[in-house]
Amino acid sequence: MLVNRPWVDFEGTHMPKYLAPGVYVEEASFRSKHIEPVATHTTAFVGTIGSRTVSPLLTSVSDFDRYQDGETHAAMAQAVRAFFSEGGKRLYVASTLDAIEPLADVSIVASPGDTTTEMAHALIAHAERPGAHRIAVLDAPAGSTMASVQAYRRAFDSSHAALYHPWIVSRVEGREVVLPASPFVCGIYARHDFEQGVHKAPANEVVRGAVRFERPINKAEQDVLNPEGINCLRFFDGRGLRVWGARTLSSDPEWKYVNQRRYFNYLQASLDRGTQWVVFEANGEPLWDRLRESITHFLYNEWRNGALLGAKPEEAFFVKCDRSTMTQNDIDHGRLVCQVGVAFLKPAEFVIFRVALQLAV
User: Fold this and answer.
1) Which helix (H) or strand (E) holds 139?
2) What is the pLDDT of residue 2?
3) The pLDDT of residue 86
């Protein structure tokens, strides 16, 4: 607030006390705060990296080479190369899950090649923490058969995790090596977010760094694996090597698809970070109006950009923040309750053409 003299706070109203006649020009804003979309592509790998706990942010393979500082961690180095080869942009590598917990911008976590159920459960628990807004990308064990990958998958039930099978044969320094799928998939997630958006399923994407897959999977096998939430990597004549699945490990049909979980994480994180200004504001109708306007503007842009289902905004989302969403008891105890609903887009997983023969009359 700009005035031509210092202003005096009286009776707790935070209003200036004007003492002389004159024109007083004040600066005030009645607009709602803008909510900025958060990034969704920053990834963290957990694994062996020597004596250090967590790397600085890596934006290229050369960053990781400098970070190793003479040490050699071949498995992690190969995973890092796979991530960046698929279009990954931002990566941390860490020796524990505790080390990546405070990294606020991470939205994807993996432990490339560690297929123990202990590590998988640890990654899932990490991604499920309140406020984490993360998803865990898991590898099926190397050399898994149909029966063994099904048994492995049944150890988990979470919408915050996705499992990929089989491993990938890639070329490293002129020789073929078999690598876990997760670093490739994490890079594809990042590439896909830039090219298509986090709301779209990260599937039917080419695995650029693959020579072939560890074992071929045919349609009959995927007919068994896909309903169980095992995302297959498959080769198609004329179309190459592709990610051919986009399901989470959840038994809840409401959270069946990876893009649903990741897009919801994105919305939660964006709203969380974009509405911190509300805390300690006066909890009344003016604040509720500003908050509704702020969230509505954000979701309208999401709908306009094709991220939400609905022919018009009111079919795509709603925002409520008034006496219907909170009681006087809520207000008396400092609680502001805002209800937000969105209509998710689901992938066209099964494309069906019904073709009929029309007889000439």
Assistant:
1) strand 135-139
2) 38
3) 97
Looking at the whole model, is its pTM more than 0.70?
Answer: yes
Which parts of the chain fold into alpha helices (H)?
Answer: 61-68, 74-85, 97-100, 117-128, 146-153, 182-195, 219-225, 258-274, 285-304, 313-316, 328-332
Contacts of 334 (CB under 8 A, 6+ apart): 283
Paired tokens of 200: 């779209």
Task: Give the residue ranges of the chain where pLDDT is below 50.
Answer: 1-13
Phi-psi region at 173: left, alpha or beta (left = phi > 0; alpha = psi -120 to 50): left
Element containing residue 319 per DSSP (H, E): strand 317-320
Instruction: Please provide the average confidence, as pLDDT, over all residues in the chain.
Output: 90
Report the C-alpha gap between 268 and 254 in whole angstroms.
17
Q: From 266, 248, 246, select the one nearest 159 (Cα to Cα).
A: 248
- Check residue 126 and give its pLDDT: 96
Per-residue pLDDT, 234: 98
Task: Specify the pLDDT at position 143.
Answer: 95
Distances (CA, A) of 48 to 125, 141, 194, 206: 20, 18, 29, 28
Any idea which architecture 43-261 has in CATH? 3-Layer(aba) Sandwich (3.40)
Q: What is the DSSP string of 236-262?
A: ETTTEEEE---B-B-S-GGG-BHHHHH
The single residue listed with the structure tokens 């990294």 is 103
The dihedral over CA atoms of 313, 314, 316, 317, expressed in degrees to the nearest 10, equals: 110
Structure confidence at residue 31 (pLDDT): 62
Q: Domain-by-domain residue ranges, the chain?
A: 43-261
